[in-house]
Amino acid sequence: MSPLLIASDHAGFALKKKLLSYLDKKGISVKDLGTYSKERCDYPVYAYILAKMISSGEAKQGILICKSGIGNSIVANRLPGVRAALCDNLKIAKLSREHNDSNVLVLGSAFVKADLAKKMVTAWLKTKFLGGRHLRRVKLIDGLGKKIRRSAK
Questions:
Q1: Looking at residues 36-41, what average pLDDT do you find?
Q2: pTM listed for this prediction
Q3: What total of structural domains would you count in the chain?
């Protein structure tokens, strides 16, 4: 099984460190894609690295963290097959898995503190996609990217 990916920018670094420790204690294999300090950096670089690995099938799931989560969501969702969900509470984290089969959990460190983030990550990892009527919608979402790429040629 491929490890869970995690990446952050400088604003998400402290929360990422807390989640790395938490996930390690739970025995979950994690690959940290950076950043590795609080030094200012550009979030699109890290979001793209993680999303590319999900898109290529090299990994199945990942977590992105920046200050608001918005930029990471925008970057990650540009790649085919990536369904990044910006979540700020436990219920939406679960619904993002059940209804949207999200494969990237995006957290905004300014809005989600460590205790809540730990609960959200645990719930997100444990929650299964419901399929059914939701599968049709996920296929529609994934198909949009294919149609757009075909029409651009």
A1: 97
A2: 0.93
A3: 1
